[in-house]
Write a structure and sequence with these properties.
The protein is 62% helix and 6% strand. The chain has 165 residues and is mainly alpha-helical. The chain folds into 2 domains: 94 residues; 51 residues. It has a two-stranded antiparallel sheet with strand order 1-2. This is RUFY4 protein.
Amino acid sequence: LPQRLATLAAAAWEEARQSRQQLQAQRQEVARLQEQLGRARQDGERWASALQRAQREALEREATRGAEQARQQELIRDMKGRLLELLREKDALWQKTEGIDTPMPSPPPRDAGLCARCRKDFRLLSRRYNCRLCQGKVCHACSVDAGKQGRCCLLCYQQRHPQAT
C-alpha cells in the first residue's frame, strides 16, 4: 500500500506539474491575445478617425462642387441671355439693312498702267492682276485670291462674299 501511495503521489505530482505548465502556457497565450486585442483596438480607432476625416473631406468637396456647379449654371444662364440679346440686335440690324442695295463695282479705269482701286502705278515689282468679275486691273494689295475662281478685286470679293467682311 505505501508503494502504491508513493506511485499515486508521484503520478499526482507529475499531473500537477503538467497542469502548471499548461496553465503557464495558457496565461502566456492569454497575454499574447490581450496584446493583439489592444493593437487591434488602436488600429480600429485609427481607422475610425481616418474614416471620419475622409467623410468630412468628402462633404467639403461636395459642398464646393455644388457651389461651383451653381456658379457655372448662373454663368450659362447669363450667356444664354446675352446670346438672345445679340440675336435680337442682329435681327434688328438685318431688318434695317434689308432694303439697302449693294453698290455695283466702279468701272475699271481706262489707264492700264494704274491700279483700278488704289491708283498705284504698276512697275516691275508691283504685279498687275485682272479681276475675274469686273475685269479691272488691280495690284496685289487690292486683290484677293478667290481659290478656283482666280483673283478678284476686294470690292467684288466683298460683294460676292458678304460674310467675309
